[in-house]
Amino acid sequence: MTLIKRDDLVQSVADALQYISYYHPLDFIQAVHRAYELEANPAARDAMAQILINSRMCALGHRPICQDTGIVTVFVKVGMQVRWDFDTGLDEAINEGVRQAYLLPDNVLRASILRDPAGARQNTRDNTPAVIHYQLVPGEGLDITVAAKGGGSENKSKMVMLNPSDSIVDWVLKTVPTMGAGWCPPGMLGIGIGGTAEKAVLLAKESLMDPVDIQALIQRGPANRLEELRLELYEKVNALGIGAQGLGGLTTVVDVKILDYPTHAASLPVAMIPNCAATRHIHFHLDGSGPAELPVPRIEDWPEVSWNNQSARRVNLDTITPEEVKNWKTGETLLLSGTLLTGRDAAHKRMVDMLSRGETLPVDLRGRFIYYVGPVDPVRDEVVGPAGPTTATRMDKFTETILAQTGLLGMIGKSERGPTAIEAIRRHEAVYLMAVGGAAYLVSKAVRKARVLAFADLGMEAIYEFVVEDMPVTVAVDSRGESVHATAPRLWQAKIGKIPLTN
């Protein structure tokens, strides 16, 4: 019988989480590189260039690929002959590994997990607890897959109970455009079919742990109905023209994974979960001989991509005027320098509550830009840790109040804005800029100074002042209310021409 030691399990989980924070799976990054080489839309190609450069920087610097270092999901297959040198439970040991990983001084990872989710929503400060799934299987070992899933992509998960005669393809093609760009494409779609509602969702999540192999499948051809469905969805989802970061283009997904399970004759449960450009997971095996030895990838395996920003418009945030903003066009690349503020969900709610009570805000927003970000804590000589954008649509309900009552000039985040926010931007002649989700370490290198200005008790959600130099962004909603996320995918869907445009 195999004896699994608690210390070996704890160290293996901690090492795995540190590993995936800065090493992309190579099969995924190679798939993105292939998409980058084939991309015909300059804006989408630029976004993928930033993702690829960021990935290589993180592999070299051992810092997080994304500032959202995720909620930890663990799949555990326990051999039935395994014995343990501890009796405190696997959950406790796995969560101790999570705790050690997220608090490691050399590479502190952002703690995003909140207890009392429907109430006080208090941060647990160490990213525990993980979400853990167990299977008892024959054998004498312990197989573990560890993943870290960002909120932006996890929030786009979808589940439906179809009728048995309904088309899964039709549901996917109808649903993917409703997910917007907050899941940071290009990525993967995991689809679970069958079982019960909760089984379908678990299958979808588990399918995303499989290797990227769609190109090999295309070359050899499908061997069964599920492989036929994978190929059909891969082609048709990409034909939607959503593209990298929702900017329009040839590649929205680099793979589609599907797992199924027998279901009731009256049922067809289907779940779909996207994996973002910060796809992070690794598998390891424990056999009682010590902690897992994780393979150290060669930096030569990362593609070296150059990024040409010479045509970008340079903007001085300290002298910017409303008249200058009115000249910006959707899809245009800007390089921002000067001072900007940060603030996301909790800070916006607090500011709006203060304004409703007639209180003065602790910061003056007039004529300024606010960046929706919750950065990772800095280490060593860093000014700030990885600081990529968070999903902007979560701030939509605050936008009218903030623009109307503070004189804020612009906002920076990731993904699209909803109709309410776009109308507020148009009405107040403001602007919304998009930074690339999945390029957090690269963005952080543009930050020259950082300090907390207000709401320090909110931790990573506090209001910071950043001094930036040549921070790359794309004009996503201009002062006239035109949104690149509305126009570009339709344009590229028409160019691809494989799915008719719908009204």
Q: What is the fold named in CATH at topology level of the largest domain?
A: fumarase
Secondary structure tally: strands = 19
Rg: 23 Å
How large is the share of residues in beta strands?
15-25%
Fraction of helical residues:
25-40%
Average per-residue pLDDT, rounded, comes to: 95
Calculate the terminal CA-CA distance, rounded to whole Å: 63 Å
Counting structural domains, the number is 3
Please report the first level of CATH classification, the CATH class of the largest domain: Alpha Beta
> How does CATH name the architecture of the largest domain?
Alpha-Beta Barrel
Characterization of this structure:
With 503 residues, this protein is of the alpha/beta class. The protein has three domains: 1-150, no CATH class; 151-275, no CATH class; 313-488, Alpha-Beta Barrel (fumarase). Helix content is 32%, strand content 23%. It is built from 15 helices and 19 strands. The chain has helices at residues 6-22, 26-38, 42-61, 90-102, 151-154, 168-175, 197-207, 214-220, 225-238, 322-325, 345-356, 396-406, 419-428, 440-444, 484-496; strands at residues 3-4, 71-79, 83-84, 114-115, 122-123, 131-137, 142-149, 158-162, 187-194, 253-261, 268-275, 281-286, 313-316, 333-342, 369-371, 410-413, 431-434, 447-454, 463-477. It has a five-stranded mixed β-barrel. The protein has a four-stranded mixed beta sheet with strand order 6-2-7-12. Helix 12 runs parallel beside helix 13. The mean pLDDT is 95.
